[in-house]
């Protein structure tokens, strides 16, 4: 069983968001393997760099999608993204500065944050998209319905 297991409860759009999340999940797994096996500093640092850059790209992509969809919780969502990015950069900095204690915490922190964030906050986008799809379908149905003659009085 993988350290960070992908599951259907992580599915958001069956598209670019899920693809990004899957890459992040596999990078967290790689980082966990590397740190728990005591891999060299360079290898862990390289993995961390990939994680940082993929996270940055992903957050931007997700924010664009949310903004285009007029996702109402976008402002709060951005706060969560910025906090996470700050935390990740801080850990990367600590690791670079030679803190060995930070290595085992890294994958746990990333896994926990991502799994909570995706399940709780990214999923709000899925709920919102389903709702707006239903609203759109209802509008289309009402437009297709032939107009009824008004009952005479
Ligand atoms: Fe996300
Ligand atoms: Fe997000």
The CATH topology annotation reads as: Four Helix Bundle (Hemerythrin (Met), subunit A)
Helix content: over 70%
Number of domains: 1
Look at the structure and name the CATH superfamily: Hemerythrin-like
Biggest β-sheet strands, sense, barrel:
none
Topology, number of strands = 0
Structural class: mainly alpha
Low-confidence stretches: none
CA gyration radius, whole angstroms: 21 Å
User: How large is the count of helical segments?
Assistant: 4
CATH architecture: Up-down Bundle
End-to-end Cα distance: 72 Å
Average predicted confidence as pLDDT: 91
Tell me, what is the CATH class?
A: Mainly Alpha
Summarize the structure.
The protein has 153 residues and is mostly helical. 75% of the residues lie in helices and 0% in strands.
Main attributes?
binds fe (ii) ion, 75% helix, Four Helix Bundle (Hemerythrin (Met), subunit A), 4 helices, elongated, 153 residues, mainly alpha
Give your account of this protein's structure:
The chain is mostly helical and 153 residues long. It has helices at residues 16-36, 41-68, 74-96, 102-144. It has a single domain (14-144), classed as Four Helix Bundle (Hemerythrin (Met), subunit A). The longest helix is centred in the C-terminal third of the chain and has 43 residues, at 102-144. It is elongated and about 85 Å long. The structure holds fe (ii) ion (2 copies). One fe (ii) ion binds next to helix 3 and helix 4.
